[in-house]
Design brief:
The chain is α/β, with parallel strands linked by helices and about 450 residues long. It is built from 16 helices and 14 strands. Helix 7 links the parallel strand 5 and strand 6. It binds pyridoxal-5'-phosphate (PLP).
Length: about 450
Amino acid sequence: MKNIKHSWAEPYKIKMVELLKMTTAPQRKKALQVAGYNTFLLKSEDVYIDLLTDSGTSAMSDRQWAGMMMGDEAYAGSRNFYHLEEVVKETYGYKYLIPTHQGRGAENILSKILIKKGDIIPGNMYFTTTRLHQELAGGKFEDIIIDEAHDPENNHPFKGNVDLEKLDKLVKKYGAKRIPYVSIATSVNMAGGQPISMKNLKDLRAYTRKHGIRIIHDMTRVAENAYFIQEREKGYDKKTIRSIVKEICSYTDGATMSAKKDALVNIGGFLAINDWDVFEEARNMVVVYEGLHTYGGLAGRDMEAMAIGIGESVSDDHIRARVGQVIYLGNKMIEYEVPIVKPIGGHGIFVDAKKFLPHVPQDQYPAQTLAAEIYLDSGVRTMERGIVSSGRKPNGENYYPKLELVRFTIPRRVYTQAHMDVIAESAGRVYERRKSIQGMKMVYEPKYLRFFQAKFEKL
Ligand SMILES: *Cc1c(COP(=O)(O)O)cnc(C)c1O
């Protein structure tokens, strides 16, 4: 008897396909020059496999598409809003819901309500839009993630954990009154999709309760975090993803959600909160920035697709295939000796550009350079998560993040295993010629979130 492997596979089949354009190396070279070596500025038509982001790029199910036909496009009181409200309450347990056009819409409203000038917002690593809204509201972000998260080689199973001592120092230094909330991301994006453990969350809840500090949950990838808890944390292997997700949310006071990630829709988000006063203010403010509180910048059909997508996102079979595909790609890259962040995260592979291109100094943008080279090699589009994404401090100085990463983000339910092979092979090929790769200089820098629109030239 041969020892035959027991593979899992996707819990769906393909009903419709989207044709892709295959490009030649000279075409890609030209496209890259026009885009100023910024993968965000490439035309998606010129991209073969698009790993820029997992945001809004999911394939919706037949049920979600059917739901879109059930859109109730009334200005006020759309039935899709009430469906979404019921699903959010049932799935996540939060009491009150404000839909927004996407995650940052919720961040804007929440930051304006909770943050006063001079406040401190501790969090388990920054996220670009989240921190910017905290700063625009007059607050200052302080990183309280465990040190292991900043080390791409460290195999800690929960690199998204909070270091409670770091938090305690902040509380002692500034006083709990100046800390409106602790900002907790599940499946920490900027650390490489690394999870926070249930135990750490419980300890954090106990600590913050003692000091009267809220926990606001950036729940963009909560289901993926739940998968790692199921896999790695004692006592959770028999629990469903659905029940783990609900337990995570129960230790927090409210959440901002970009439904473009976990919730399997192309647009949408929300703010969810247990506190009536905050809800009331948010319900008022959403009218100014997004739209009436029963649509928040979304069409009725978008809210319906989101309600159905949330249900699908917490299915055990879905999440096993989703994260399983990411892990498959990561292991392929390791086979080709490409240096990646470990352990492999939930939504993508993060290549360590400092290790990949040790001869390129950080102010010559190693991760930006590597993302450009990968595109040139194969038409695979990735993105920089390093010094460019990190931006400047309010005083104008550059942030110098420890991590200089290229993110290969995997859209949900979109690409096949053969695509994963092509991606890993491309990274392997570029790695083989790494010594010949030179850095870049920035020739155009926008004021906000510069990584989206900055332009570069080869040195
Ligand atoms: C994408 C994202 C956001 C912002 O959401 P948008 O829908 O892009 O506005 C916030 N936090 C995290 C962790 C994200 O990944």
